[in-house]
Structure formats: structure tokens, C-alpha cells
Amino acid sequence: MRFYEATRFLFPRHYERRILAICFVAVHLPLxxxxxxxxxxxxxxxxxxxxxxxxxxxxxxxxIFAVSELLMPIRRxxxxxxxxxxxxxxxPVPVGGEDLVGQLLHGVAQAANETARRIEQLKDAAERDVxxxxxxxxxxxxxxxxxxxxxxxxxxxxxxxxxxxxxxxDHGHDRGDQFLTDFADYLSASLRRSDIAARWGGEEFIALFxxxxxxxxxxxxxxxxxxxxxxAAFTIGGRxxxxxxxxxxxxxxxxxxxxxxxxxxALYAAKEGGRDLIMTA
Length: 281
Hints:
Layout: H1 2-6, H2 15-41, H3 46-85, H4 100-126, H5 137-147, E1 153-161, H6 164-171, H7 173-190, E2 196-201, E3 204-209, H8 214-229, E4 235-236, E5 239-240, E6 243-251, H9 256-272, E7 278-280
Parallel strand pairs: 6-7
Antiparallel strand pairs: 1-3, 1-6, 2-3, 4-5
Helix pairs in contact: 2-3, 3-4, 6-7
InterPro entries: Diguanylate_Cyclase, GGDEF_dom, Nucleotide_cyclase, Rev_trsase/Diguanyl_cyclase
Catalytic activity: 2 GTP = 3',3'-c-di-GMP + 2 diphosphate
Organism: Sphingopyxis macrogoltabida (Sphingomonas macrogoltabidus)
């Protein structure tokens, strides 16, 4: 480190230029020595000097090129580390040998992979509901954004568990939390692979049915309601818990908030209409 610190005045912002400058001086030392000796002896030989000069220039150019190429992995590793520090993604890290540069590249690859893994874990944790494991509101919005990027029609559904407050009041919040988890698992397992479900808040859930007509969405949700009525897991203390649903059509992510508002109004109408119903806005 002492020599490194001592030579920092040479190109303080460009490490590779510092190395090239040192190589340049080192390559020219034989030429300078030859000139000094020939001048001291008064035995100047133009042809010998020409050969030495040509060899020195060729050696200099070759050394500059070779050192520049040898430093290329370090440059790439530096750029990759800076990208990782900013939280960005890096492409495949070049594989080096067993030398110092190879060890550096291996370390960068490990750091990049570990950072990317942790970022994905943090992002997933931030977009998941802790209780049910479904996406939360933020996760839902981030997930459906690319799906609704085109102008195709989709359906948005707002679902709310009927009389869920009575479950908490009569059986405790722990039992209520377990019921929410069971319903989330049931909802996730019953929807199609292309459908996106999330917990919107409390006992309210939301689902997106991409490229689905109102009739198809009603059929899917009607099947869920029918199967839920016959599922003993959703009967607590002799009380059968059902869900009400409001549906609205959505086209484009910019219209999602308005469609969600209309679906919520339809859900309110289903609640007012007697619950365990599906209403379309």
C-alpha cells in the first residue's frame, strides 16, 4: 500500500493510467541508458539507436495494449460493484482463473448474486401480506401493472367475507386470523394460473381476471361460492361463513382505480342485497 499511496499523485482518478505511466518509464529506461552510455563514450551509432528506438516504441505500444487488456476485468468488476451498490442488476460475471483477478471476479459474482437474492427477498416481503401470504395492496398493484399495460379487457373483483366480525367476536382473533389464512389458501388454489389475488385489507380481498368477460368471471366466482358453502372448513360454531363480491370491467392500468371503486360499490350492493351474492357494476 505504501507504493500505491506514494504514486497517487500520478493520475489520482485513473489507476490504470498510473500503471501505464510506470510501464512507459520502465520500458524507456534501456533506451535512456543506451543514449547516456553512447554519449559518454562518444561512440554514437545511429543504426543501433534506431533499432533501440523502434524496439522501445513497439514494446511500449505492446505493453500499453497488454496491460490495458489485463486491467479490463478489474474495470468490469468495478462497474458491476457500483451497479450492485445502487441496487441494480448485473449481467453474467466473467469467469476468471485462479489468479488475483479471477478471485476478484469470483468475489464480485458472489456479492452480486447475494445482493440480488436479498433484494428479491425484501421486495417479496414488502409486497406480501404477512398473515395470509397473498400479495398485499402494493404487491397487487405492482403485479397487475404490466398485465394491464395493453388495451385488453379484464375483470376486477372485490370480495368481502360475510359476518366476519362475528367470527372474531365469538371465537377470538386467533381463530379469525386462521380463517383468513384458510380462505386465502382456498382463493389462491381455486383461481386460474393467470388470475391475481391479494388481500386488500381486513377481511376484504381483490382479484384480477385478465382477458376475462363479465360472464366468465361470474362463473368462476359463482363456483367458488358454491364450493365454499359445502366446505366444512368455512363453518364455525354452526355458522357458515360466505363471501360477497363486486365485479367491474377494467381496461388499462390508468383506469384501475376507477374500476376498483366501481367494484367496491357493487360489493356494497351485494352486501345490502342479502350477502353471499355477486353484483356487477
